[in-house]
Design goal:
59% helix; mainly alpha; 122 residues; 5 helices; single chain
Length: 122
């Protein structure tokens, strides 16, 4: 079995989590301490990914390394904006089917909003 394949296998069950914070809960505190070094570019990527998931980089590294399922806490405002864009798209589609053509101005406005939201997500 290759190293990469072995590293991707889920050997650990997901730990119990605190209901409000989502942090892992164990019966005893962590006692093993290890240092790890990163290139600045690597750590910047880790920080971006951790921020996207709404957790500190240390927790992200620990949970990713052990193989826990990483769950995100999505920005509620972005979810709301995506829902509104979806509603507008449905209205445009319904309108286009009714009159047989598409309103280009509204479609361009919708495209601009979608690109703004997607740039914030990625």
């Amino acid at each position: 079995m290759s190293y990469i394949r072995a590293a991707t296998l889920r050997e650990w069950p997901d730990p119990p989590r605190a209901p409000r914070t989502g942090r892992t809960r164990f019966s005893e505190p962590r006692s093993v301490r290890r240092g790890i070094r990163f290139h600045p570019e690597e750590f910047a990527r880790i920080e971006r990914m951790a921020t996207t998931l709404g957790m500190p980089p240390n927790r992200f590294i620990r949970e990713a390394a052990v193989g826990y399922r990483l769950s995100s806490r999505a920005d509620e405002e972005l979810i709301y904006q995506l829902a509104r864009i979806g509603q507008n798209l449905n209205e445009l589609t319904r309108h286009a089917h009714t009159i047989g053509r598409l309103d280009a101005e509204r479609l361009e406005s919708l495209d601009a909003r979608l690109r703004t939201v997607l740039s914030r997500l990625l």
